[in-house]
Automatic annotation (TrEMBL):
This is Probable RNA 2'-phosphotransferase. HAMAP family: KptA. Keywords: NAD, Transferase. GO terms for molecular function: NAD+ poly-ADP-ribosyltransferase activity; tRNA 2'-phosphotransferase activity. GO terms for biological process: tRNA splicing, via endonucleolytic cleavage and ligation. Belongs to the KptA/TPT1 family. Pfam families: PTS_2-RNA. It comes from Streptomyces capillispiralis. Removes the 2'-phosphate from RNA via an intermediate in which the phosphate is ADP-ribosylated by NAD followed by a presumed transesterification to release the RNA and generate ADP-ribose 1''-2''-cyclic phosphate (APPR>P). May function as an ADP-ribosylase. The keyword Translocase does not apply. Its EC number is 2.7.1.-. It is an enzyme of class 2 (transferase). The keyword NADP does not apply.
Amino acid sequence: MDERRTVKVSKYLAKHLRHQPERIGLTLDEGGWVEIGTLIAAASAHGFRFTREELDHVVATNDKRRFAVEGTRIRASQGHSVEVDLGLPTATPPPYLYHGTVARSLDAIRAEGLRPMNRHDVHLSADRETAARVGARRGRPVVLSVDAAAMHRDGHVFHVSANGVWLTRAVPSRYLRFPGSG
């Protein structure tokens, strides 16, 4: 499977397992799972064909481990805009987590903190390098430090997804350190 096909199938899966399952007639269960055979058949019926082998390749080679397979079911690991309960236990975060963004978003973030936007949670990274890669998807990255230990002490709840993404409902700006702010 070439890289272009891998990316195409991955984007298709992300769109329909995170955001628009109904567009191809899928119904995710409460945990976000769907039978793989049902997914492949629905995609095919809507003009996008891929094989189980291609799906397995995408799941196995995705560097961000965006998808999880359990037996005959698949789901997106996080990032949903549709209502699902991933069943992730609460977790104690490391002292600092990181968020990648771009300069044009900084004024809004200073004013409002980090909000989940069209997702259920704010996504945070355990290291600066991952946060920089995330931010680079929208331009030149700016990495913000999040005082996760202080947030946790103050009662904010954290979860960590199977692929290592830290999730929390929001990050008020008082817990953020901006580049150049010390």
